[in-house]
Sequence to fold (430 residues):
Amino acid sequence: MKIDVKEFLKPCGCGRKHEIVVDDIIIDSGAVKELPEILKRPAYADKKSLVMICDENTYEAAGRQVEELVPELKKIILDPENLHANEHGVEAAKKGLDEIGDVDLMIAVGSGTIHDITRYHAYEMKIPFFSVPTAASVDGFVSTVAAMTWHGFKKSFTAVSPIVVIADTDIFKEAPLRLTASGVSDLLGKYTALADWKITHLLTGEYICDEICKMEYEALDRLRASLGGLTTGDKDAYENLMYGLLLSGLAMQMTGNSRPASGAEHHMSHLWEMEVINDYIDFYHGEKVGVGLVLASKIYHKAAERMLEGDFQVKDSMPVETDLIRENFNKPGMYEIIMEENTPNLLDEVDSAKLIEYKEEIASIIREIPTAEELIAMIDQVEGVKSLEDLGFDESYQAKTANLSPYVRARITFMRLLKFYDFYEEVISC
Fold:
């Protein structure tokens, strides 16, 4: 499967000229063998000093093969033990890069962490990089931001997308099922992300692209049809998953931000990563997103039912809950960071009367999200993580997470809009 990136650059009904910074995406068995020929293309022929960044596990999965295909390649092999996209992972890679000296192009061989570390350095060094995914585990392979936990705070750093993605099915379908399940959950998270986007557009007029939404829903349909094949090693099923994950990344490039791919489900994941209501939990990004997705779906559907009953009121305004933030985001410097993220108050843009006026439209958008039970059944097909209990939390974390997570990012979601409604406490509770 070869993705023709030019197809996404055609004139769009939304009126915007979309931009994509990826030259080529290949998803196929044996794709990595094309690497030497790709490097000979005029656009890359002058790149003489090549460096591969991987860890010990991804070196065995694909790095050794990449090294054999490109003998002049230098390599940085990181220790996978406690390797994360944070200041320590960045520093470990920098040490290797400093030892090598001049670098013209990097090749990221790995999953989400390796890619975020590589794209961070590629941006800092103003050089391009190639992507060789070793697992269909995240939607961030072609992201233009590096999502990092920096000194305990979840931050998004401006970075660069790979200019070429070589996704070899023979490689990524051999990844542990847990990594694949993480990718499934990350992609399924688009259901709530898209709903958040559509509801916000309805209420505030925020830009939205129907074509981007359509292509993401089509990718979700392909994923759902492929779930059974992911446990049997079916090539087409794995390629459909990888296609959806890469498409999500392209959607972000086309939009210019993460709106098509990140909503309430991601904000929940970010909250847990900040460790303000919990201790450290050793789970993949997609696993946490999957739990956030199930919770968001459960809460949203309960809210839709209450809206259609018609017996509810909304507040005239919803100020930032500074006392709540001060009480919970109490690590040194965290309160100030969260308040900066929430200044100005995004909910000032919302005419709360529209929450009543558009209740049927909002409920209709929510009904496009599979129910919590349906999502759990999907995640179960790949033996994935889907509940608070799976993360080591009890049920009390549902309300706490729903209440605090909307403040971790400057973005309107329905989870944040729920604070207007008089049934708020009812729907966020178990």
